[in-house]
Structure formats: C-alpha cells, structure tokens
Write a structure and sequence with these properties.
The protein is of the alpha+beta class. Helices cover 25% and strands 24% of the residues. An eight-stranded mixed beta sheet has the order 6-5-4-7-11-9-12-10, with helices on both faces. Strands 25, 26, 27, 28, 29 and 30 form a six-stranded mixed beta sheet that branches.
Length: 610
C-alpha cells in the first residue's frame, strides 16, 4: 500500500502498530514490535497524537510557552558509593538530545567514596561537554533537645540516611538554588530515550491543574508482559518516585509536614502526604526509568533483581529536541482533573463486568494439589475469570456454602481432585473468558487484591512477597490491568473507593451508625467500644484508616505510613521514634482486638443491635 494508506491503517491498529516502513513509495506496511532500521527501507515512527474517547480528540496542542522553562528546572541525581552505576545513569541521561536544556547536579552522601564518585562525574561531564554540579550531604546532625534515643538510632539506618539525603537534596535545589522545579533520579536508574520528553510535554498540566503535584517516569504496574501503549499516560494517587519531577511550591508545603523519623521510608511518607492533600502524579503506562543495578538498599536478593527485570522500559524515540516546543505525547488534555474523571466514568459505564463461565467438574472434591488461593470471591463465575495462568490450571475448588474459604486454583496434574471429608468443596472447570477487543470492570477489596493481581498483570506470579502488598499505580482505588489469559483491558475498582465508580449495590461505604472513638493509650478497639456498650467493626476500620480522620481526632501535625496489627493509631509515648505521628497503613490487615502500649487507636464503634 502507499504511504498515506499505511499511515491510516497504522492509526486504526492503535497500540498494535508502532509505525510504518516503506521499501518503496508504493510498498509500505505497518510495523509491530521494536523499530528496525536498515539502509534499504525508510521508517516512519508513529507519534502520540490522540488518546481516549472520541469526545476528547482535538487538533489543538499547547504552545511553546507551556514547555519546561529549562533555566528554572534542574535534574538532581542522588548517589551514595556505586561509581559504575552512577556513570551508567548519567550516560543514559546526558545522551538525550534535550539534556543540555537542564542544569544537572549530583548529590553525594558518602564521604569515603566522594573522590571516586566525583571522578566519575568529571569524566562523564567532559565526555558530553555538559557542566554537572556536585555537592556533598553531611550526616544528619542530632538535636539532643528534640531527637530521642530511638530517633537517633534510626538516623543511622539505611532508611534514615536515604530519607535525610532526599530532605537535603530537596532543601538544596529548592531553597538554596531556588529552582522552580527539579527532576530527581537515583544512581541505579537508567532512563528511556523519551525520559525528558515526558516532563517537557506535561509541564503545562502541572501549571494549570493544582490537583497534580508531580510527574514520574515510573509505573509500579508497568510489567513488560502487561503494558503496551507507550503513548498512554495516567493519573495516580500513589506517589511512585524513581525518576520524578517536583515543584518548589509543593516542597515548601511538604517540608512543614515532614516528620523527624519517617520510619517506613521517605517515599511512603510522600504517599501519605499526597493523599492527605488529595493530590496526584502523572505516570506513563510504559515506564521511562528502570533499576539497572543488581544491589541496593531495597534490592538485596536475586529474586528482587528478577522482579525489577520484568519491568518494561520505553524504547520510543523522543520527538523533541532542544530548539522547539515538546508535545511528544500529543493532546493530553484528558489528564486534567475533571476531564480525566469524566473519561473514567465513561469507560466504566461502557465496560462489561469481568466474569467467567464454568461448569461443575467433581462434586464433593478438593484440589489434589493447590496452586494458589485466589481469595474470597462470591461465585464460581468470579473465580473462573482468574484461573489458567502459570501453575494455576483451568480447574479450581469452590465451596458455595463457605465462599470466605476462598477460590483455590488446582495445579496441573494427572489427578485434579480428591475427596473432601466434609463434601463442602467442589471442583469446577473454567471456560475461556474475555474479549481482547473489549474493556471490562472487576471489583475488588484490599484484602484480596494481592491474590487476584497476577491474573491482571499487576504482580508477577510467584513474587507476591518481594514488595510490600499495597495497591500501587491506583487512581482512588481504580487500577488499569490486562487480563493475561484473554489480553483484555480490565479496570479493577476498589469497592471502598471514595469515588462512585461502582453501582451503589456493589460499593462498600461507611455505615451510618459508625461512631469514631479515640481510645486511651494501650487500649484495643474492642475495649474502647465495649466501654461505651458498643462493638467494634473491623470492616469500618478501613474508612478511618487515613490521615484526614486521624488528624481530626488527634490533632497530629505529622502523619505517616506504618505496618502493624494495631493501626490506625496515634503515637503517644515520647520515647518512640514516631512520637507525635498519626500512623495509617497501606499494607496491614485491620483488626479490632489488637493494641500497642505506646499508641492510641481510632476505633469504629457501632451501636449493638438488640
């Protein structure tokens, strides 16, 4: 076909086409996979022009005045003592054609490695002819009048040192250097060819939409086996880190709320801060940054290395240079808050409910060998939508009388089922479900998310314990996934989402009878509620597990994430490293009968029914 026909065909193919190759003027074809260059063919790379519903298509793109003002935007690479990693990181960054638009700094925090790290910076700087500023971050100074003994111990941990390094880098680039915005990288990251194009193309969104606080190159759900559209961008309420742009005006607000000891890490504290302020980040479907190192503070095992090797990295060439405005992702008006919400509601309204089909295979039998527990699901049809992946066969066990036992996927074998003593279990066989040309919706709860995530490409199979079990890359509980057995796009929606994404009969909402009660130090919620002749509801705890409710009842200035069975809680004892903090959790199961001698719990008390 001729070039014009091939281009039109490529657009119709959507994410399946990356561009057009022509052997001759009348012999052109659409390309899939990575772009291959050769001397006998001319290639035309597909640009990111439009996205989303037809309603939002427009030929109007934002003007050059809304590009990144390069003189006011810095790039800061935080590094410790890995000389080779730093060289690789800087090389991947400075080879980008628009890198010279930015002032680049390297922030070092290891005095013993300073000379060799500085040497690596000088060598890269000379190779690319670009000046790189270097500064040194001294260890955190202890204020003995304020910092208790446990906080002083925490300052010396890896988590404490990294948090201090980020604090110092934020202070240096925003408060001393007075940059309006900065992109932050770590020494073990490499960046994609269009890494800087992401920040330049989205700069106007941060300027126009106060609900957006950052842009990140990282997507926690960006596994290579599940993502494909290099042009698609999302909004997320889950701060991602790992190559992100932050504005000075945001830091001026955050620095007033930063606690002395964010013991679960600076990045988890940022997540609570963003949610407390109801702010979001923009992220790409396909990541523009990636861990390259095989060791680090959070990568210590071979299995963790394998986990991050599964993440995608965009191979899209940048359409931007240093002389013209950058609109690499085309029309991204859909990222504005109101438009994005309208698009989400529209997509959910059109989506079909993801259910499978199954038939009874063996009554009164359970799996001979169980591959995985897929969690609490209401019906065999819900189970059928999740099976058939990896060691999980199309056969599964389900007990209709006891759905809370979970959906148990059977491992492949000569004999699928064996007799169950109580005859409660039965084996079902699932049929193929899902149309790759459609979009589906699948409601979930936090409690069963990690069980179902592998079926939707949001967690590699068999790697559930390598990262904390929180719901990542989500937008108010909505996560975009891919049903791996059918390749259909699925919108997973938290039943407790604060947004009305689901029909009323499928939402889980605060009970009108809920009465939040602040307990005394060392009390469990069962005890707090019983004192008032009420009962504690573990289900209702989910609606109190946020900084806004905690601050309203305890008046805490600081709020942070923590793990533990006695959350959410306020830390009252002054010898604790987290003293004065309200603690919420993204990962722990919530319980009524738990307590801690140093904390006060916020409890969901309910009037007892007669």
């Amino acid at each position: 076909m001729v070039l014009s026909e091939a281009k039109e065909h490529c657009v119709k193919l959507g994410r399946l086409c990356r561009g057009v190759t022509c052997e001759a003027a009348s012999n052109c074809s659409a390309m899939t996979g990575h772009q291959v260059l050769n001397q006998s063919a001319t290639s035309y790379t597909k640009l990111c022009v439009f996205f989303g519903d037809e309603t939002f298509k427009s030929s109007t793109l934002h003007a050059a005045s809304q590009d990144v003002p390069s003189s006011d935007v810095a790039i800061v690479v935080l590094a410790h003592n890995r000389k080779n990693d730093l060289s690789i990181c800087l090389d991947s960054l400075l080879r980008l054609p628009d890198a010279k638009l930015f002032q680049v700094y390297v922030s070092l925090d290891d005095d013993s490695a300073y000379s060799e790290m500085q040497e690596a910076v000088i060598n890269i700087s000379g190779h690319y002819g670009q000046e790189i500023g270097v500064w040194f971050v001294k260890p955190r100074a202890v204020n003995f009048a304020v910092d208790n003994g446990e906080q002083q111990k925490w300052f010396k941990t890896s988590t404490g040192k990294i948090a201090h390094h980020y604090w110092s880098a934020f202070e240096r680039v925003f408060m001393k250097q007075q940059h309006d915005a900065a992109i932050f990288l770590e020494e073990d990251l490499v960046v994609a060819p269009d890494f800087l194009a992401l920040f330049r193309s989205t700069a106007w969104v941060l300027a126009e939409d106060p609900s957006v606080w950052c842009v990140s190159a990282w997507n926690d759900g960006g596994f290579a086996f599940a993502v494909s559209d290099q042009c698609r961008l999302f909004r997320t309420t889950y701060f991602p880190g790992l190559g992100f742009l932050l504005q000075r005006k945001v830091w001026i607000r955050l620095r007033e709320e930063w606690p002395s000891a964010p013991t679960m890490g600076w990045d988890y504290w940022m997540r609570t801060a963003f949610r407390r302020a109801d702010k979001e980040c923009i992220i790409p479907e396909v990541p523009r940054s990636r861990h390259e190192s095989r060791k680090g503070s959070s990568i210590v095992t071979r299995k963790q290395v394998e986990y991050f090797e599964l993440m995608a990295l965009s191979q899209q060439s940048s359409s931007c240079d240093g002389t013209r405005p950058c609109n690499h992702f085309g029309n991204i008006d859909y990222l504005l808050k109101d438009t994005y919400e309208f698009w989400m509601h529209s997509a959910l309204h059109k989506a079909e409910r993801m259910t499978g089909s199954s038939h009874l295979f063996q009554s009164g039998q359970e799996c001979t060998s169980e591959a995985i527990n897929l969690g609490h699901l209401a019906t065999p049809e819900d189970c059928a939508a999740l099976v058939g992946l990896g060691e999980c066969s199309e056969y599964f066990g389900f007990a209709r009388q006891y759905p809370y036992w979970g959906c148990r996927c059977c491992r492949f074998g000569k004999k699928i089922g064996k007799e169950h003593p109580g005859k409660a279990w039965s084996i079902y066989r699932a049929s193929l479900t899902g149309d790759p040309g459609k979009t589906y919706v699948f409601p979930y709860t936090f409690e069963n998310y990690m069980s179902i995530a592998p079926s939707f490409g949001l967690q590699p199979e068999g790697m559930a314990n390598l990262v904390p079990p929180d719901v990542r890359a989500e937008h108010y509980g909505l996560v975009v996934g891919k049903h791996l057995t059918s390749q259909a796009v699925v919108l997973l929606v938290d039943k407790r989402s604060p947004k009305p994404y689901l029909p009323v009969d499928e939402q889980l909402s605060p009970d009108p009878r809920l009465m939040p009660m602040a307990g005394a130090k060392g009390q469990s919620c069962d005890e707090v509620c019983q004192q008032r002749r009420m009962s504690c509801s573990a289900e209702q705890l989910h609606f109190l597990n946020n900084c806004i409710n905690m601050t309203a009842h305890f008046g805490c200035k600081f709020c942070a994430h923590q793990s533990g069975a006695e959350l959410p809680a306020y830390v009252a004892d002054d010898f604790e490293p987290t003293v004065g903090q309200c603690l919420v959790t993204f990962i722990s199961q919530l319980q009524c009968n738990t307590k801690h001698p140093s904390t006060r719990r916020l409890c969901p008390c309910m009037a007892q029914t007669a």
